[in-house]
Design brief:
The protein is an all-alpha fold. The protein is built from 23 helices and no strands.
């Protein structure tokens, strides 16, 4: 039942209905009947080569502020591609070096400021990302990437109106890959998978390189997974990996879909390869192993996660959402509540509301848990996992009819939403039939 793999993971308003009407209406920018062309002819993505080229240029031109900012963005792309947070520090160093270099007007190089905002989002410092993006907007209001940083930050903070307003401005000014993928995410957050899928297909059709295409296909895979279609998810992840074989999120998604389809040996091999490169997926792998009866193997994966967390704490960085979610499912529920209350003070998003409600339920505080579960649903909690959590909480409160409704909804959204959770939901429904 892990959400730890997601940073933004992840996601009711008028904005996107208006956007889609403008884009798809007769005479609009996009047409629904246009097929999405498959990208062909790309060689395997060589991000490491691009980073090496940028580093070589900077050895020759160490005072090139634009090149330093570009290198920072390449490091951030490496994080997105490999889920390796070690590149965060390298990105920060490149952006800070760029901002220290002189520019014609004496101001910091604006792309480096935007990069610092993107880095803050990647490091889950969403309030910091807002500050960096607002600094960039004050200096260069028509630099459209800053609105992507601002949209992402507001979305993660639970500021959904601000996220939509910012994205509207971004779409008005630059309807491109970055804005379409964010619009798709907002559609998905609000429970509209059809429009989200259309926007992602359109984004895939205009992807500028293998990295963008892999990211977009990975998002299509995630969308198919969240809507209970592991076969389509598997196909999308395969498309992503054809463009970029090193795209770790799609490698993990492929293993996840294989497990749901009963290809357990393939899934185990896939997960083992993924966690060797990206420990952020160890809890998800451990949950599969635990469901399969391999408690020792699961324990090893959980030990990796807790060791990771200790290193973060030692560095002064605590991921309260990830740790709280882990403790609620596999550790001490009271500890989970403490972590998630701390996270709720930072950001009141749908994912944190659901996680705190679940932790409270696991700690035996069912009535308080129900208030957060209901809030998650009001904020746009349309995922099967959220419905399952609400069903368990209602069952604990003795509200059998409501529990059955939520558990049934969870399985109708996605019958394979989690190895243990889906099985538990079926057992509860059978017991109360």
């Amino acid at each position: 039942m892990s959400r730890i793999r997601r940073s933004l993971p992840l996601l009711g308003c008028l904005l996107l209905g208006c956007v889609l009407l403008a884009l798809y209406a007769p005479g609009g920018a996009l047409r629904r009947d246009e097929p999405t062309p498959r990208k062909a002819g790309w060689s395997p993505y060589d991000l490491a080569g691009s980073i090496e080229d940028a580093q070589n240029r900077l050895r020759r031109h160490p005072d090139d502020a634009a090149a330093w900012a570009g290198l920072g963005f390449l490091y951030l792309e490496q994080v997105r591609r490999t889920a390796d947070g070690a590149y965060h520090a390298k990105a920060r160093g490149a952006f800070e070096r760029s901002m220290r270099l002189p520019t014609g007007d004496g101001e910091p190089y604006i792309d480096a400021v935007i990069g610092m905002g993107a880095l803050a989002n990647a490091a889950h410092d969403f309030a910091g990302a807002v500050r960096w993006a607002e600094q960039a907007r004050e200096a260069a209001p028509y630099r459209w990437p800053l609105y992507g940083v601002l949209t992402d930050a507001h979305l993660e903070l639970g500021h959904y109106r601000q996220a939509e307003s910012t994205l509207r401005h971004m779409l008005d000014g630059r309807p491109d890959f970055a804005s379409f993928t964010r619009a798709a995410r907002l559609e998905q957050v609000h429970g509209r998978p059809g429009p989200a899928r259309e926007l992602l297909h359109r984004a895939c059709s205009i992807a500028g390189d293998p990295a963008e295409y892999a990211f977009c296909q990975g998002q299509l895979g995630d969308l198919a997974w969240e809507t209970g279609d592991p076969r389509s998810a598997l196909a999308a992840y395969a498309e992503a990996l054809a463009a970029d074989p090193g795209h770790v999120p799609s490698q993990a998604g492929k293993a996840r879909a294989q497990a749901a389809l009963g290809h357990v040996d393939q899934a185990r091999r896939g997960y083992a390869a993924v966690v060797a490169k990206a420990p952020s997926f160890v809890v998800e792998y451990g949950e599969l192993l635990e469901h399969l009866g391999d408690r020792a193997g699961a324990g090893r994966q959980y030990a990796v996660f807790t060791a990771q967390h200790k290193l973060l704490v030692a560095a002064g960085k605590t991921d309260h959402l990830a740790m709280g979610t882990y403790e609620a499912d596999h550790g001490d529920p009271d500890t989970a509540v403490r972590h998630l209350r701390a996270e709720w003070k930072r950001r009141q998003s749908v994912e944190v509301a659901d996680a705190l409600g679940w932790a409270l339920h696991r700690a035996g505080r069912h009535a308080e848990a129900a208030t957060y579960a209901a809030r998650a649903e009001r904020l746009g909690g349309h995922r099967a996992l959220f419905a399952y959590h609400r069903g368990e909480i209602e069952q604990a409160l003795g509200h059998t009819a409501s529990a059955r409704a939520h558990l049934t909804r969870a399985l109708s959204i996605h019958p394979h939403f989690s190895p243990a959770g889906a099985a538990r939901a079926r057992r509860l429904l059978a017991a109360t039939a």
